[in-house]
Sequence to fold (371 residues):
Amino acid sequence: PFDTLRRLRHETPVRYDSNRNCWDVFRYEDVQRILKDSKTFSSERGAGAGSTILFMDPPKHKQMRDLVSRAFTPKAIQELTPRIQSIAEQLLDAVTEDAMDITSDFATPLPVIVIAELLGAPKEDREQFKRWSDILVESADDLSDEAFRRITDKRMKAMEELYGYFRNIMGQRAAEPQDDLITALMNAEIEGEKLTEKEIVSFCVLLLAAGNETTTNLITNGVRVLTEMPELQERLFQSPDLIPAFIEEVLRYYPPIVAIGRKATDQVQIGDQTIEKGAQVISWVGAANRDESRFVEPDDFRLDRKPNPHMTFGFGIHFCLGAPLARLEGKIAFQALLNRYQNLARASSGSIQPIQSSFVFGVKNYPITMH
Ligand code: HEM
Fold:
């Protein structure tokens, strides 16, 4: 999609899409301004999404963010390093041939297991966890009303089950606190205010929905880069300290999230267009990340890009809370892969299915060989 996004950024940097009834914004500067100005560009959505931090505006957003940040600190994440390493090694130990599907064998289970452990879900519930998180991010294969209704029904059912599940765990933790995120969220407090049960449960569900598919796509997209530019493999093997720079460049170049939505709370001018109050505005991060006014040779993949101010984790008050976790998982995943295998290559057999969502850049499967 990046050729199309480049063309649109040049030809119609701010445009109205009458099919989808929304405004599209493609330039770095404009995207950044929108994400910065949470007053004019609101994150609030219709009923039902009310207790999810992602869809809150200030002042409620800040209150909630302060509370969950207490439990979800970069330090707490850093401490997961040895566990994530051992999960990554176990997954690769289970691959006995010199071929695998990087998506299903590695990139999908890794973040699911990590998040399940972080939350404190018992091991035996992992399979169920994976099914729930798949349903949450599943999109309709076709655009028929029928397909849409089927997906929505499935999603509602999974949500209900997840709510019940987390409510049950909370009950157990109330009686017997554990060293896990759920207990930490139950104890987090600011000026005597605690999170409600509904807020905690919604936050846990959000972590599954926001954290799993995105991290899966970060890993798969990174492997895709390594197979498209095999010379990088030797380079990273020789200098593993370049892996974090590699991860940042993957995030910029093949971003797991390509677009971020907002709603205009007022009439507002962007570029030479006037956006009406109440309009949906889509910020195309996938286009902004390759804006030549901000990035030198934006369509080249460069390990020496410094700084690398991509906006794949968003910008401003909603900046991804899970970024430290995603970066850590990405780093560990590539350390493990590059340590073990010399030549990662795309398998010649099997076609690759892109994920059917214009907001996501990723594939459902990516068969590789390694030696
Ligand atoms: C918010 C991207 C991984 C939890 C966001 C936003 C983006 C994003 C773009 C901002 C959305 C907006 O402004 O409307 C990503 C990408 C990831 C990733 C690309 C992986 C490469 C994770 C993980 C977690 C997580 C692993 C947690 C386990 C969250 C939460 C928010 C968020 C809780 C809401 C923050 C707020 O509204 O204040 N993420 N994310 N994300 N992300 Fe991530």
About this structure: The pocket of protoporphyrin IX containing FE is lined by residues 43, 53-54, 65, 115, 206-207, 210-211, 214-215, 218, 256-257, 260, 312-314, 318, 320-322, 325-326 (CB under 6 Å). The first helix runs from residue 2 to 11.
